[in-house]
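Input structure tokens:
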């Protein structure tokens, strides 16, 4: 009986850790893909920033390693739910920030995670108007 209880307890711990690792892996993959789409594509349609109601996939790229300020402004003006739907992340929460070289927040959209949340943060550096900017995308449950 003791052995059976020990095995059940052990299995419970192992399965909890496996589920946590799988969820963390999914979060990491989603955050990486979204960050890459934002900084490496113009979005679809390409001129979505001119009519934000037409956005299917937001992208911020002007040309490689350069983001377009108009696209960034249009992205942070989008409704939180629209962004979640576009990236198919309705069951997650997110935060997107653009910061200057000193870490000062220039623009952002979304909500900040609480200290209890296990958040995945992806960071990229890009030029916006010939200024180096830090682009951060944070995703969590």
């Amino acid at each position: 009986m003791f052995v059976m209880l020990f095995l059940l307890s052990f299995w419970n711990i192992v399965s909890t850790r496996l589920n946590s690792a799988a969820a963390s892996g999914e979060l990491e993959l989603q955050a990486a893909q979204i960050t890459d789409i934002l900084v490496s594509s113009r979005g679809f349609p390409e001129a979505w920033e001119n009519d934000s109601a037409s956005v299917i996939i937001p992208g911020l790229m002007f040309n490689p390693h350069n983001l377009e300020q108009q696209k960034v402004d249009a992205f942070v003006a989008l409704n939180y739910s629209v962004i979640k739907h576009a990236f198919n992340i309705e069951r997650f929460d997110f935060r997107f920030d653009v910061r200057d070289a000193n870490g000062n927040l220039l623009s952002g959209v979304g909500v900040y995670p609480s200290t209890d949340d296990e958040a995945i943060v992806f960071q990229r550096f890009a030029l916006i108007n010939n200024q180096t900017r830090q682009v951060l995308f944070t995703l969590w449950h």
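The first helix runs from residue 2 to 40. Confidence is low (pLDDT under 50) at residues 2-8, 13-22.
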